[in-house]
Amino acid sequence: MLHGGFLEGDAVMVAGAAGSGKTTLALQHLVNGATKYEQNGVYVTFEQLPDQIYRDAEGFGWDLRRLEQEGKFQIICTSPDLMVNKNGAEELLGDTIRELRPKRMVVDSLSHLQMFVPEGDVRREVYRLVMFLKTKGISSMLLWENPQILGNSYSITDVGLSFMVDAIVALRGVEIESSMRRALAILKMRGSDHDKHLREYEITPHGIRVDQPFTQYKGLMSGSPRRVASEKFVDMFRSVSDKKKSAVG
Amino acid sequence: MVEQTSNILSRLLSSDAKADLLVLFHKNPGLIDTIEAIARRIGRMGSAVEAEMRDLVAMGLLKVKVIGGNMVYSLDRSGDKRILEEAADHIRIVK
User: Left (φ > 0), alpha (ψ -120 to 50) or beta: where does B4 sit?
Assistant: First the structure.
């Protein structure tokens, strides 16, 4: 879907509503980095305590405490107002960056960080954080809680952060034939080609699994999905019916 | 040595707030925050844990640094490991 993955040093925003699987996707990204690609990872959380993250990860078979003991992973739990202080990122993350030499970092979440920054300063602070991590050669995954669950408007953030990141992954619930399903789309990817399809994904006992594109439906992002084949079928019947009416008339 | 470790154990268990702080930092070794924010995470006021936090720093279990004028506390992993080992040895000797 990403045609080889994110580029080194990229800042990736993962946007989605509560329960869409942002944290799971982010942890999976770090665990895969540490276990398959020799890329150490750091998870910065402003919301959940690490204890809860360890426990939730165990449910997917990821032993984060073991990865920490092996020096491949670390969770940092802090307050967003410390992060946006002068030199806050360096003071908070500097020791960990020097010791662990991470290549991947997750920030959970920018929406929480935004609450502690005056409205006009959000973009500047996020830009500073993104550039701090890029300078250290770290790819960042920035989580954004989007309250939009269903509906026909789809703006990623209301504070104009989309242009500051290199890639945007949107996770969205879609209602199809009275059941809730999950859709994933790559909305932006600088410097690389990517799959433009809206794909279904599932949260499995082993993490997130991306499935086939929703080729049978249209209008998913607008919140009004329609079955493409059935639409054509209805049109065909309508035209036959119209012809019959005009012949009778 | 035995007396010293015994004193450390008494200090560690001297209040409920200190016990809550120890559990919090052991379960969440990556926690780094201000007194007020740490206190909130155990459902207390900053003023109620300030003295305990300072004592844990003095004992070498926590470390402190200043970020943007705020005193920020985190677990001193090496100090914590040393004290835990001493306490375990002490308990073995006493038994």
Answer: alpha
